[in-house]
Structure formats: structure tokens, C-alpha cells
């Protein structure tokens, strides 16, 4: 629970699951340079000249509301844009460009005074730029459920924003910290044509600014923004694209990169020098899942029956998937919400998620598919995911379901599969900073997975009402009850099947919280600063 006593805002939300486990080291010399830039460095005294990040994806766009590729570009967008609130290394939204904030007694009006600050090119940042950023988010429809409670925002003057909410919104600050609310000059981004030209070489009101950026190439470089209100711990970050997990690990071991994401299991299974390198299995505030296309364009008749989707849930062996494919580094999930550091978590599916092939066969027989059917499962080609779906394929064969796996390569091509609206089923993950936001991704009109799975708004009427009530409540008991009701509807619908707790295996040669991706989903990026983001 996050309580702003001064302004009487109660922002209840489970913490980001940044639980790091399984630390080991890796052999090699430290490639990061600087007076104080090593595994023992902390943000208050760290001083890095350059840090190299080995990324899975190329940076194709720095406009967070019009992405063209994978999450790496979202990460880099966050460090070169202004933000009202920014996630700190602990995963909480902290004031960034907001200097002060007051909230009305009815929690419906939020007034923010902005810092007096210039962009990296010396031009002044004004409140109208933030209004334009919000307008661009609305038009993009990206994770629209996150801002559904916002009625409007206006610039009272050059340094004052006034937000009007439709109802109290406990996760408001979490929404403001999303990458979609990136602040850039309104005069250069208030039309699509202007924005397309501007984002080829944008200015910055974030901790870093662009130095080298050619969309879609293997190198992106950002340097410290001298006009930012705090000093970044590194003068430079270099992002090199290495799509293959084993090659990323080899580069890390060789000392040519300092931070790396999505390592293969070999990184956790080998003993290395703990004094120089750290590898961590980080549990995400997210859920591995099987998603089903609920739209009219979905061609598989069997999947249109909820009993069939429930049978698939009963037939899969969650324990085996997490034990074998993920080496036991993360656990099963028998509810929709993430189950790490979440006071509202509920194990909501039958038999606590245990496999029951007899019950699965019974449902298939009732639905008219006693002899099974064929199923096409799309999977973004990420490290470890192929192993997971191979187990699912074998599990479903036992009840007569013949699964064809489509490993989508590169993984960023999954967007084209989703947008075609003809896919049947998909392995993926759903991550969010709070349980309400995560459930909204699935079960609220405008939610990212509600949209991806083509669920009609009318189908979500009941869950929308419950999530609105939960999002406006200040009682943990009320919130838990509302979310439990959402979970019951989720099983009845079974458009999404929870499997396990999402996690990543990452490595670093420098101290935690200095230069790293951020949960959930690693869509944002942390650059430590001195002074740090406020903690009030």
C-alpha cells in the first residue's frame, strides 16, 4: 500500500515483483568504465563513463505511442523523454518533473506544479507539452484502460497541470509513470506528420539524450542530459543488439557488455566469479499464459466453446512446465493475478491448477470433441519459451488435442500475427505494476490483451464495473472482494489460461539499480541519478 498522507491520496496496489533470486557470478573482466562503476557501486556515489547493454531487439522508434519493434525501444524511449512520474528501481512511481502535487478532498482533482526545466536543446518545457503527451496517448489507444478514469487534463499556466478524474483512481500515479506519457515539445509532436519527423532525432527532458540513433540498426547510444534536474550515474549508455541468447551470454562472459537480458539457463547453471558479475532470476509482476482469440475471425470452431478452453487449462501440467522449461527458477500460477508480493492474489482456477486429464476429457466430450481436434499455437521466439510450449503440446496430445506450434521469428513479428486477427491461441505473458492494472489488461475495454484477443466490450461489462469499483476503493477488503469476483468471471470465460509466474534471467557487472530494465515486462528502464527520485 502506498499512502500519500499529505495529499490524502491512498494508492493501493501490490508492489512490483522485483524479487531477485539465484545470484551467481560470471567470469571475465568488467567492461564498464568510470571512477566508481562496478558490482559494489551504489547510485549515491556511482560514476560510470559508459555502460554497454546487450539487448534482444533493435531500437526502431523512440516514440512510445507508436512502437515498431520490441521492448528495447520502449526502454530507450523512457530514458530520453520527460515524465511526470517515473518508476524508481524499486518499481514505484516517483515524482520526476512534478515538483509538487495536491489532491482534492473528493480525490477527483489533481493539481501538479512542474519543475522549471529546459529540454536538452535549451528550449523550455511547459505544461502544454504534458497535455499534448496525454492527448497523443489517448489517440494511440495504447493500454487505454489505464487512463479510462481520466476525464481531462488542462494546462492552467506554463507550469501547472490540473487533472480531472471521473472517479477516484488509486493507481493514478502508476498510470502517469507509463512509457506512453512521454513529454516532448507540443509544437513538434502535435500532428502525426510532425511527430514522425521529430522522433528521428528528439530532444530530451529525461535523464539521457540521444547521441546515435538510426532506426532499426544494431547500435543506439544515449548520453547524460545536462539539463535534467539530477545527475545520471552514467555519462553514456550503449545499446548493442544481440538477438541470440547464447551469443548474449558469450558477450557477457567475454566482458564486452555490462548488462544483458533474457539469458539462457546455462547462465544460472554454471558457477562463476561472484565478485565481478551477477546473474539474477527476477520474478516479474506478470503471468505466463495461453491466450485465445475471441474474435469472429478466429477459424477454430472448437475454441469458441468455453468448455474446450477450460479443458485445455485442466490438461496442461503447470508444475512440469515451470520445473523443466524454466528450471524451477519460477513457480506455477493458479490465478490470473501475479502471485509475488501481491496481497490480493487468489488461486482461482479449479483444483488449484493441478492437472486433471479426466476432467479435461469430460469437458471435451460435453462440448462434442471427445475425439479431440487440431489447434494452432503461436509463440514469440524468446529464450525458454519453445521448451514451455513443447510440454504443452505433449500434455494436450494426451486428451486428443493435436497442437501445431508456430515459433514466430523474430519475436517482434507476433504483432503482425495479432493484428491479422485470425490466430487461434498464443503463448505470452501479461504484466502490470499493480493487480488492478494487470486484470484491466485482460478484462477492461481498451485493455491491451482484451484488444489483442478481440473480446467485445459487451462481454467485459461486468468485469469493467468490478474493476472500476476496485480502482476507486480505499479498503483492501473491498478491493480483494471485487478482484475475486473478476477472477470467477475470468474462469467462466477462460479467454486466458494462467500457467506460471513470468520471470527473466539477466546479468550485470555493476550495482543493482544503476542501469537496468524495470519490471513489469521490462518495458521501462532505470538510470540511477543523484539526487534520486523523491520517495514521498
From TrEMBL:
InterPro entries: Peptide/Ni-bd, SBP_5, SBP_5_dom. GO terms for cellular component: ATP-binding cassette (ABC) transporter complex; periplasmic space. GO terms for molecular function: peptide transmembrane transporter activity. Pfam families: SBP_bac_5 (PF00496). Coiled coil: none annotated. Residues 99-435 form the Solute-binding protein family domain. GO terms for biological process: peptide transport. This is Unannotated protein.
